[in-house]
Amino acid sequence: AVLIEAGSFSDSPSAGALANPPVVNINGSTVGSGKITITDFSDNRVFGGPNGQDGVVINTATFDAVPGGDIQLVSGGDTMIGSAAAPIQGDGLRLTNPSGMLEFDDLDITNNGGTGMIVETKPGNTSFNLTVSSGSTINTTNGSAMLLDPLVADVTFDMVTSTNSPTNGITIDTLDGSVTLGTVMIDNAAA
Length: 191
Fold this sequence. Notes:
Low-confidence stretches: 1-19
Strand content: over 45%
Helix content: under 10%
Distance between the termini: 38 Å
Number of strands: 16
Order of helices and strands: EEEEEEEEEEEEEEEE
Mean pLDDT: 86
């Protein structure tokens, strides 16, 4: 488990060049051939700061609990990204070109001015399975709550809110599996 506050961690050598680097930035596209494997991702707590920083940004990484054979499920455990008192000021969770399998027992995202959860495999044509269990929530202000494109998913959120999104409140495109959303509140989305 990791407790991280804004500005305290980055594995990307170029992150210092960013005006407001993500709170957590794992970027396999900058590490040689993009060989970053995440074997455990459970029970993280990531809180936002005032500087417009994205929360957790992972680009080009494999989620595999036991590298070297068939892909094994990685636990995301109970993960909190932002809170009402310290929302992420940008995207909450952004996974670009992930591969492998990741499962959250509970995922709660609170953010402002970005997308709550983005999972995009299309740019790198990767294969990714995402599971999110009930009890999970996304609360996004001034942005879209969710963008999923494309992936295999079994995702359940008890509540998803998007207020004042400059685009859609929720975008799901090319998904194999299921997305179950309990209470959904989309208010004042532009698209």
